[in-house]
Amino acid sequence: MGSFSFPKSERILKRADFVNLNRSGKRLYTKHFTLILKRNGQGVTRLGVTAGKHAGNAVRRNRLKRLVREYYRLSKACLPQGYDIVIIAKNNDARYLDLWKVNEEISIIFDNKFRQ
User: Fold this and answer.
1) What's the predicted TM-score (pTM) here?
2) Residue-by-residue DSSP string for 19-80
3) Number of domains forming the structure of the chain
4) Average pLDDT of the chain?
5) In CATH, what number is assigned to the domain containing residue 85?
6) Three-state DSSP state, 14
């Protein structure tokens, strides 16, 4: 069993990395999220999470980001290795999501995209 931690080496923190992904990454859409994926050549999957003001006030945006990070932390063994992933909360309806709904919605994208 793998580690369930979320160390700094698995996070996208620099603005330049976000901009690079935004320009040249592959976009995938769900009802509440936009996912941007790109190979990073590092062999480790990194995650960045954003939620703009359209996703609600600060409390709701932070809750959404915590839910997405928790999804990643619990599911990273099942995710493809060597990718940079940015998950963007799209709209105000996302504030009603719980961990199970986030898991279901994002898992569908990864299952369809990386089905072997």
Assistant:
1) 0.88
2) HHHHHHSEEEE-SSEEEEEEE-SSSS-EEEEEE-GGG-SHHHHHHHHHHHHHHHHHHTTTSP
3) 1
4) 87
5) 3.30.230.10
6) coil
